Amino acid sequence: MQFPTIEDVIGHTPLVRLKRIAAGRNNTLLAKLEGNNPAGSVKDRPALSMLEQAEARGEIQPGDTLIEATSGNTGIALAMAATIKGYRMILIMPENASSERKQAMAAFGAKLMTVSKEGGMEEARDLAETMIARGEGKPLNQFANPDNPLAHFRGTGPEIWEQTQGTVTHFISSMGTTGTIMGVSAYLKERNPEVQIVGLQPQDGASIAGIRRWPKEYLPSIFDARRVDRVLDIGQREAEEHMRRLAREEGILAGVSSGGALAGALRVAEEVENAVIVFIVCDRGDRYLSTGLFAPEA
To answer: Which residue in 71, 173, 174, 257 is the catalytic one?
Structure first.
């Protein structure tokens, strides 16, 4: 009898219908629960994809040291994947990442380095490039690696199509590295060009883990604006309030970017009817508990 290994259970996540949060106008609102992946986020998919494809090309081999800049979920996923495959992993992240994220990376055996909160992901990416140039490790570079969206073209997109039996009309996703929205868009548009792809970015001044508005010089090269039909700006308070709504009204404990995705999905639902709207719940909320975002209201 053949039993699966841990990498075999990455993907194939549930797609669930919201019951209490109304989408109006006979719309169906569906949440793709990516927190059900082994390391707890949608980033498990590209993490494994980037490692496996680099191995297949002979660019890396077990025992190598890999270096990656991350704000959290990709780092956790890469730390897990590196352990599975036998690599040493150095992760560089802003110092203000939640303690749960840092501890999860360390639990998988990764070495952590931090940069200033003010420098953020841009400083983390610069440091990663400097270390790689010095020969201290090999890159995966989620921001420019086509194997990132490939994971979603091969996995997330087909799953959504099959789980909705081809009835999906709108796909809503936060945009950070942009791998998820790029890969899913490519697949869904291939099956039905009329499916609307809606990306989310933070309003000016908002700091939402997993959603980014990149300076032009740091825009991920895997991003192709032509694959996104519409972009919505999401506010900090709006994302946090909808994150709490997911937990308290639907029993879905998720992170802040997932709250932003719900907020975006509800905006779209106000404008359409008889639609099947899918949004990504990219991770679990338990890795945000120390931030106080779920604390009872005073």
So the answer is: 257
Q: What's this model's pTM, rounded to 2 decimal places?
A: 0.93
130 annotated ligand binder: no
pLDDT in tens, 94-111: 888 778 888 999 999 999
**Where are the domains positioned within the chain?**
6-37+152-288, 43-139
Give the per-residue pLDDT at 296.
63
73 closest CA partner among 37, 109, 49 = 37
Say what the pLDDT of residue 214 is. 86
- 176 in a labelled binding site: yes
State yes or no: is 257 an active-site residue.
yes
Thinking of the domain 43-139, which architecture would CATH place it in? 3-Layer(aba) Sandwich (3.40)
| Annotated catalytic residue within 32, 43, 85, 102 | 43
Query: Average pLDDT of 33-51?
Result: 97
CA 193/CA 189 separation, integer angstroms = 4
Asked whether residue 156 is marked as a ligand-binding residue, the answer is no
**What's the confidence (pLDDT) of residue 130?**
96
Fold of the CATH domain 6-37+152-288: Rossmann fold (3.40.50)
Mean pLDDT within 51-64: 96
pLDDT tens sequence across 179-198: 999 999 999 999 999 999 99
Alpha-carbon gap, residue 114 to 135, rounded angstroms: 19
